[in-house]
Amino acid sequence: MKIYVEKHPDLNETEIIIKCKDENEEVKAIQTALTYFDMVIIAKKDDKQFKVPTKDIYYIDAFGHEVNVYTKENTYQTDLKLYQLEDMLSKTPFIRIHKSTIVNTNKIKSFKSHINGRMEAILLNNKHLIVSRMYVKNLKEKLGGTSQ
Amino acid sequence: MKKYMSIYLKVFFFMSILFLLLALIVVRRFDVTLPFARISYGIFVVSAFVSLTLWLFKLEKGNSVLNVILGYFMLIPGILVIRNVYGNYLFRLSSLIYIIMIVIGIIYGIVLWIVSKKYKQQVDDLNKLIEKQNKS
């Protein structure tokens, strides 16, 4: 696969053209991955609906029947279930790190371990999120590492 | 509570085997009959303390160091209950209780060291991957 970047200062919006022989699985995966930059989640805040761009989301968590979407400064509520969001965002940098949390891996600053083996992800806004041991393998794979 | 009960169930199973083995040793060695009710009460109570230790160890809230220390202190009453159940047959010297407390402390420390080392390695790997991702 060849990747070229052409700079056109006169363009207002970034254009991506995929040139391929067939629209195979690889091409479809690239297309889905690119949707991260364009994808929005419809969420509510103070009874108003907003389109929240996925690239601005830090993490999503569920508390009872409520699913909250967190950006740098705001918190929104969505009617979607956590598993639906996980499925929707599976090809993007989002990954489940706890039974009630999905995180945007692009917003993770570092990881920290505690004496009892508890693992935490520290986000760019200094929010600490618990990482369950059972999701570590998937997290490693998402970040481009091997599962071992 | 649900998590605690799930831990309790597993611990109860292993405690039943442990208490049965201890009872067999005492019965064989000293030729005495042990009251069934007292052993059953011992299994219930010791399982509760051990489960509490494991629950505190796995707890995701609060200070992890404090949870670990509290967990160790939760094990001590368990030893006293075992002494109460088997009496002088198992702990002939009262100083043996202190020795067992120290031995349990050492085992607890080793488990802690292994767990923290294992997850420290995973965290280091994840930090390297994040660094790599942020650079690219």
What features would you highlight for this structure?
heterodimer; A: 148 residues; alpha+beta; OB fold (Dihydrolipoamide Acetyltransferase, E2P); 3-stranded antiparallel β-sheet; 3 helices; 16% helix; globular; B: 136 residues; mainly alpha; 4 helices; 85% helix
User: The biggest beta sheet of chain B, please?
Assistant: none
- Enumerate how many helices of chain B there are, as a single number: 4
Any idea what the shape of chain A is? globular
SSE order of chain A: HEEEEEHEEEEEH
Helix content of chain A: 10-25%
Q: Give the N-terminus to C-terminus distance of chain A in angstroms.
A: 27 Å
Report the CATH C-level class of chain A: Mainly Beta
Strand order of the main beta sheet of chain A, please? 5-4-3-7-6
User: Compute the gyration radius of chain B: what is it?
Assistant: 19 Å
Give a brief outline of the structure.
The complex is a heterodimer of chains A (about 150) and B (about 140). In chain A, about 15% of the residues lie in helices and about 35% in strands. Chain A is an alpha+beta fold and about 150 residues long.
Characterization of the model:
The complex is a heterodimer of chains A (148) and B (136). With 148 residues, chain A is of the alpha+beta class. Chain A is built from three helices and ten strands, in the order H-E-E-E-E-E-H-E-E-E-E-E-H. The relative contact order of chain A is 0.12. Chain B is mainly alpha-helical. The A-B interface holds A 105-106, 108-119, 130, 133, 136, 139-140, 143-145 and B 57-60, 64-65, 67-68, 112, 115-116, 118-120, 122-123, 125-130, 132-133.
Walk me through the topology.
The complex is a heterodimer of chains A (148) and B (136).
Chain A: H1 25-34, E1 40-45, E2 48-53, E3 57-63, E4 66-71, E5 75-78, H2 82-88, E6 94-98, E7 101-104, E8 108-113, E9 119-123, E10 128-131, H3 136-142
Antiparallel strand pairs in A: 1-2, 3-4, 3-7, 4-5, 6-7, 8-9, 9-10
Chain B: H1 2-30, H2 36-58, H3 64-86, H4 95-135
Helix pairs in contact in B: 1-2, 2-3, 3-4
